[in-house]
Design brief:
The protein has 32 residues and is mainly α. The chain has one helix at residues 3-28. The model has no long low-confidence stretch (mean pLDDT 86). The chain crosses the membrane at residues 12-29. Keywords: Membrane, Transmembrane, Transmembrane helix.
Length: 32
């Protein structure tokens, strides 16, 4: 796998994982 594809995949997957985790935390924690 080329480094460029690695970087592209990382930049695509990290925001998705971050939003996913934020969604879980937001659901579990009481809304203020």
């Amino acid at each position: 796998m080329s480094p460029l594809m690695d970087i592209a995949n990382a930049t695509k997957s990290i925001p998705l994982l971050f939003a996913f985790l934020l969604g879980i935390v937001g659901t579990l924690s009481p809304s203020n």
